[in-house]
Amino acid sequence: MTLIGRSRTRGVETLSLDAPERRNALSAALVGDLAAALTDAGKDTGVRAVVLTHTGNTFSAGADLKDPPAPTALTGLLRQIVELPKPVVARVTGHVRAGGLGLLAACDIAVASRAATFAFTEVRIGVAPAVISLPLLPRTDPRALARYYLTGERFDADEAARIGLLTVAGDDADDTLAPVLDGLRRSAPEALAETKRLLTAKVLETFDRDADALTALSARLFASAPAREGMTAFLERRDPEWVV
Q1: Among all residues, which ones are annotated catalytic?
Q2: Considering only CA atoms, which of 219, 244, 235, 190 is closest in space to residue 73?
Q3: Confidence class of residue 10 from pLDDT cuts 50, 70 and 90?
Q4: pLDDT at residue 1 above 90?
Q5: What is the pLDDT of residues 60-70, one digit of tens each?
Q6: Keyword set for this entry (predicted)?
Q7: Which residues, 6 or more positions from 133, have their beta carbon under 8 angstroms from its beta carbon?
């Protein structure tokens, strides 16, 4: 059974993260299913653009701590979104944590309702936002990232738009999304692909330069003693031992 819902309307393929009982955590299975769906959309000449959205009240809670994807798989998924020859638009109406923020940053356009909240929670479980930095660092305000990376604080959709994580926040995500999709439908497919290449060149330079090092860092940190304590504490709903 696939963990990705699919539908299409007037050339826009909607892919929905569909594991709400696990808060759409990025499991090995979900990452694999999303990669397969993106591959199909990229090859399909009937697809003008892709909307990446979710079921339930959480876009993604980040890595699935019980069945995490390999760091190389997450790196590959993020690069696939950046390189897809069609625009990818994130539609968010719920909460986004940790690795889920990497998905947003990899998308070309990201729209969210003001009901959404965001947090880089990695440091609170003993790891770092390593792989997701590949699309985040080139696209997001560095001073804001320093604060939210280091503290794990929660922030709202308007702040996410201010720092460049989102393109725009609105009271209703679908109302905000409508003119974006109208514009994409009015654009020539070849022109969209070439324009996307212009926009993603700097991001892909970061992947080329840093992907191996950050993937290795992620693997090392997730295998560390602090990560084991942090993840155990999270699953047991208690503070990890380093909290003072």
Answers
A1: 122
A2: 219
A3: very high
A4: no
A5: 999 998 899 99
A6: Lyase
A7: 210, 214
